[in-house]
Structures are given as structure tokens and as C-alpha cells.
Specification:
single chain, mainly alpha, two-stranded antiparallel sheet, 8 helices, globular, Mycothiol-dependent maleylpyruvate isomerase metal-binding domain-containing protein, MDMPI_metal-binding, metal ion binding
Length: about 200
């Protein structure tokens, strides 16, 4: 039960978390209130992304009774179906405010807490916001969040966008699976192989 794709999801998540922390370390003091992504400032963007760390530690302590979500792609599709954009925006703003006067230290602490929590369990069935799923099936969704929003932070703050290859591989697999299950697989495959471009604004999450 749980992850069986041969990828060390823990190690890749740790790599993604380390990359995100590096991006946060690179944010200058005068950049935190600059535009980050959409309506979010850089601070709100970092706060939102930091939830990819904090939820890992939180959910490990929330056992589920049954498996309702099979993998990270299913997680994204289920979450998207019930998403409230305004609620997501508000949570990001709140998470940004919660970073306080020393946001770097808060993000580092969240990373360390997540890794410590991972180190004390195997692959429990956890209760996520969209239902029960195995931890190692949930982690790729967090790796994907850290990869995508790590790029957002880098672009917003003028840093080099260089996400580790193994992290990109996991994120691409998750989003590609989500696209295929949503009925957009052929469009994504055509774009990846240079057959056609994706429509403006296309997204699977």
C-alpha cells in the first residue's frame, strides 16, 4: 500500500525543501512587500509555500480511517474541484503575516520540523484536507508545491531559477498525471514534444 514507484519520495521532498529554503535566504530585506504572484506579495507567496512544509508535520499526527485519495495527482484534482480561490488567497496572506519579523527563521524551522516528523514514521495513512491518503503518496504534492512556488519566489526576487532535476521530475510526473486524468493529457504531450503550444493561461491545478 502507498508509494511503489521506486522514487525515494522522502529524499526528493528534502531536496525540494532545501531548495526552497535557499530561495528564501536569497530574498532581500526590501523585497518582502513586492509583488510575488497574482495578488500575493513575496511575503504571502512564501507563507503560502511554507504550508507545503508545515502540513507534512501536521498531517503525520492526524491518522485517517480509510484511504480516499490514491496519489498526488488525485490529491490535486480533488482539491481543485472544491477550491475557493478567495479562501486560498486569504490563507496565503495569513501565512505571510505569521512569518513575523524573521521570516527566514520561521521557514527554516518549518523545514526542520517537517523533516523531523518524516524521520519518526514509516508510511502512515494520514488525514489531508481532501481525505485520507498514505504519506508517501502525499509527499509528491508537497514536492510539487515547493518546486513550482520556489520558481515563483526566484522570479519575483531576481534569483536564478534552478530547481534540482529530481524535484522537477517528480513535479512534472504529478502534474502530467493530473492533466491526463483531467482529459488534457494529449495537449500536454503535444506541447512537451513540440507539436503544439498550450493555450494561454493553461493550468492543471
Amino acid at each position: 500500500m502507498g508509494n511503489s514507484n521506486g522514487i525515494d519520495e522522502r529524499r526528493v521532498f528534502e531536496t525540494a525543501a532545501g531548495h526552497f529554503v535557499d530561495m528564501v535566504h536569497g530574498i532581500a530585506a526590501d523585497q518582502w512587500d513586492r509583488p510575488g504572484l497574482g495578488d500575493w506579495s513575496v511575503r504571502a507567496l512564501v507563507g503560502h509555500t511554507g504550508r507545503a512544509l508545515s502540513t507534512v508535520a501536521d498531517y503525520i499526527d492526524r491518522p485517517a480511517d480509510d484511504q480516499r485519495i490514491r496519489d498526488a495527482a488525485d490529491y490535486y484534482l480533488t482539491a481543485a474541484a472544491g477550491a475557493d480561490p478567495e479562501a486560498v488567497r486569504a490563507r496565503g496572506e495569513q501565512a505571510g503575516q505569521a512569518l513575523g519579523d524573521d521570516p527566514v527563521s520561521v521557514v527554516v524551522a518549518a523545514r526542520d520540523r517537517a523533516l523531523a516528523a518524516l524521520a519518526r514514521v514509516d508510511n502512515p495513512l494520514i488525514q489531508t484536507v481532501v481525505g485520507g491518503m498514505y504519506l508517501l503518496d502525499y509527499l509528491p504534492s508537497r514536492t510539487t508545491e515547493l518546486a513550482v512556488h520556489g520558481m515563483d519566489v526566484a522570479r519575483a526576487t531576481g534569483q536564478d531559477v534552478a530547481v534540482p532535476a529530481e524535484v522537477v521530475e517528480v513535479a512534472t510526473a504529478v502534474l502530467g498525471a493530473a492533466a491526463a486524468r483531467r482529459g488534457d493529457g494529449e495537449a500536454v504531450l503535444a506541447a512537451l514534444t513540440g507539436r503544439s503550444a498550450l493555450p494561454a493561461g493553461f493550468t492543471v491545478v
